[in-house]
Amino acid sequence: PTPRIIAVDGPAASGKGTLARRLARHFGFAYLDTGLLYRAVGLRLLRAGQDPADEAAAIAAAGTVTPAELGDPALRSEATGQAASAVARIPGVRQALLDLQHRFAVAPADEKGRPTPGAVIDGRDIGTVICPGADVKLFVNASLETRAKRRHKELLDRGEAIIYARVLEDMERRDQQDRNRSVAPMAKAPDAFEIDTTKLDADGAFAAALTFIGSRL
Ligand code: C5P
Q1: Cβ distance 141 to 193 under 8 Å?
Q2: Mind listing the pLDDT tens digit for each residue in 90-120?
Q3: Buried b (16+ CB within 10 A) or exposed e, 101-124
Q4: Interhelix angle for 55-62 vs 78-87, to 10°?
Q5: What's the pLDDT tens digit per position in 114-147?
Q6: 131: closest CA among 86, 123, 182?
Q7: Could you give the ipTM of this predicted complex?
Q8: Ligand 1 centre and the CA of 23: distance in Å?
Q9: Which atom of ligand 1 lies closest to the CA of 130?
Q10: Quick check: CB of 41 below 6 Å from ligand 1?
Q11: pTM beyond 0.90, yes or no
């Protein structure tokens, strides 16, 4: 049988990762955070002292990204997020990461490699480009200030010393870059259900998603 696919898109710190993981657990589906793929490419370049805007270096790095390297805690840093957004604008990088994402959607498997009946995939272009035929599409959003506050708290909790104004500015720049790039920009698919988490907590977002998913799966 064809695996069921839930696509979850939205900007940074919208709560899409939390929601996607919870949906995956609820339905017994595999989960792929595609932001980590772009982060892995960005981190490789940062560690090699290369510029994330260096197209040839970024494309070469993207060609060798493997799921095994996605657990590195350094992937979660703010600097890596910015580098990820820079490499994500490069068409050759997106192309190089397509195959891995499509394989996951066609034959989803859990961490132990066991096949699952479906997948939850989160990112920016899942409902529009990667899985346009997804059974369910969600677009998770929140105001810029709400997302910046969340991200600031997350970074402080992880011991990264950074001021709120800087987080807000970085987030706004990354949003702009992700929305306005020429290939696969962040966008809500016309058939996606939008969940605004500005005034919704994780339980509220999960409940809204389940109500929408209802009989669709
Ligand atoms: O979601 P996360 O913040 O980890 O994503 C990091 C960056 O990777 C985003 O700012 C975006 O530029 C890029 N990305 C993307 N397409 C995806 C997932 C992430 O372009 N499907």
Answers
A1: no
A2: 999 999 999 999 999 999 999 899 999 999 9
A3: beebbeebeeeeeeebebbbbbbb
A4: 100
A5: 999 999 999 999 999 999 999 999 999 999 999 9
A6: 123
A7: 0.99
A8: 20
A9: 21
A10: no
A11: yes
